[in-house]
Design brief:
Layout lengths: L17 H22 L3 H29 L5 H23 L4 H34 L1
Length: 138
């Protein structure tokens, strides 16, 4: 079984936007619940159910971010939105791979590292820039 470590929220991930930070924390919590389900041997169905929830939550989160960007006339809106679209496509592809009977250990490792790396990189880059711009408009 893959050795996976829970992701931890820390102040270096805070954008300063309460809504976005709260949603990022929730996203991380769901990602951790996928790790927990795997560690507890809950099986493919439970992991897929959690992945489905994470996909739905991602749509909600991206919609909130995109509304903030549109409302503030964020100049990098189209670039930021494209990153969102790319992650949604990545998540679909990950789910398809799991449905094709990839081993649970391999799947979990790929999902956790792909999504975890994306989340941290996106927050500290794209979301920090977006939040700073929105603050400057207030």
């Amino acid at each position: 079984m893959a050795v996976l470590t829970q992701y931890q929220w820390d102040p270096s991930l805070e954008t300063g936007n309460e809504l976005i930070d709260g949603q990022h924390k929730e996203w991380m919590k769901v990602l951790n619940s996928i790790i927990d389900a795997h560690k507890q041997g809950k099986g493919r169905d439970e992991i897929m159910k959690t992945m489905d929830f994470l996909s739905d939550y991602t749509l909600l989160h991206f919609s909130a971010e995109e509304k903030l960007m549109a409302d503030s006339d964020y100049p990098e809106y189209s670039i930021h939105k494209r990153y969102h679209e790319e992650l949604k496509e990545t998540m679909k592809n990950l789910t398809k791979k799991y449905a094709r009977e990839v081993s649970p250990d391999d799947f979990i490792s790929i999902v956790i590292y792909t999504l975890g790396d994306w989340l941290f990189s996106h927050i500290k880059g794209d979301d920090f820039r977006m939040a700073a711009y929105i603050r400057s408009k207030s």
